[in-house]
Amino acid sequence: MIHKVAIIGAGPAGYTAAIYTARATLSPILFEGTQPGGQLTITTDIENYPGYPEPLSGSEMMGYFKQQSERFGTEVIGDTIVKADLSKRPFTLTDSMGTEYLTESVIIASGASARWMDIESETALRGRGVSACATCDGFFFRGKEVMVIGGGDTAMEEAIFLTRFATKVVVVHRRDSLRASKIMQKRALENPKIEFEWNSVIDEIHDVTAGKVTGVTLRNTVTGELRQRDIGGVFLAIGHKPNTEVIAGQLELNPEGYIVTRPGSSYTSIPGVFAAGDVQDHVYRQAITAAGSGCMAAIDAERWLMEQS
Ligand code: FAD
Ligand code: NAP
Prior knowledge:
Elements: E1 2-8, H1 12-23, E2 29-31, E3 45-46, E4 56-57, H2 58-71, E5 75-77, E6 81-85, E7 91-95, E8 100-108, E9 112-114, H3 120-125, E10 130-131, H4 134-137, E11 145-149, H5 153-162, E12 168-172, H6 182-189, E13 194-197, E14 200-206, E15 215-220, E16 226-230, E17 233-236, E18 240-242, E19 273-275, H7 287-308
Parallel strand pairs: 1-2, 1-8, 2-5, 8-19, 10-17, 11-12, 11-17, 12-13
Antiparallel strand pairs: 3-4, 6-7, 7-8, 9-18, 14-15, 15-16
Helix pairs in contact: 1-2, 1-7, 5-6
The protein binds flavin-adenine dinucleotide (FAD) and NADP nicotinamide-adenine-dinucleotide phosphate.
NADP nicotinamide-adenine-dinucleotide phosphate is lined by residues 48, 117, 149-155, 157, 174-175, 179, 184, 201, 237-240, 285-286.
């Protein structure tokens, strides 16, 4: 069987592309990957998605996206694409069970994953006091002092969330001003349980030998001064990298590793392959823009398929 459209990714971009292609009677198949619902499922309240005047959890919202896409006939497949052959049409996608899917078009909506500092002690202590998801792991840090690394919206959100459990949250940021939106900055700066270490980065996390986090070595990015600080946990919130492993070497990427799309469209460097959401957006990276670009990809795919017939 040759599918008309296959969608890689179950975040706001993937599900929106599914809703539109399903309503266009293209019977899309959608692969969920390892994070069904995408990045929003690891956050608490969503307050800025239009149409929801009251906050709702990311998981609840993504449940609605899925429900809506299935209502119009999307086939959601709970597996990950491990290989994509985009060299000839129909394209071939292979899932982790080895099942091959032939498809005339592909919409890549594989999003982005948390970035790590990639220092040895961080790698060694991941899951042992070092985390990149406060909503997943915050509960384990009750009564402790924890650190959040980063100065963006995610860092502020994680820090505020962690004040529910931690006695104190120390935000470590490499500059002296935050990147986060004004509203998130204000909430964090006004929170009495949050303290800031400005112009600082982590050089090392202790204690690898003990197998748990007991403290860090901080480096001042202006003076170079090194300083020890006791801490019970470290949460990374230093941004995300696009998930492009399965299409590596096949599609044009920009220098930061994001899929290049033709301006004002979702067309990639291969005809019949479209990209939407955070995997092709290093600027806006919001649920609403991901959903909007998912809609664009669906319409582009539908028109492209019509031109082929
Ligand atoms: P993602 O949500 O990243 O979803 C990617 C999907 O692709 C996942 O389902 C994954 O499993 C799947 N996938 C990846 N690789 C494969 C593969 N090989 N095979 C199959 N599937 C694959 N934005 C807002 O607008 N408001 C907020 O309040 C907000 N809060 C946030 C809080 C946090 C902590 C974070 C990290 C982000 C937040 N964002 C928020 C940003 C928002 O989550 C993203 O912009 C949005 O989720 C991007 O959607 P996406 O569909 O492009 O990708
Ligand atoms: P981000 O905006 O890219 O911020 C990453 C932060 O980490 C920056 O402050 C950056 O410092 C710092 N950083 C990067 N690499 C570092 C390193 N190696 N060491 C130390 N610090 C490092 O990423 P994000 O906060 O994850 O946000 C991603 C997107 O999701 C944004 O568009 C954001 O608006 C959106 N989002 C929205 C909400 C919301 O609306 N409530 C919540 C979360 C996320 P510099 O500032 O110096 O570059």
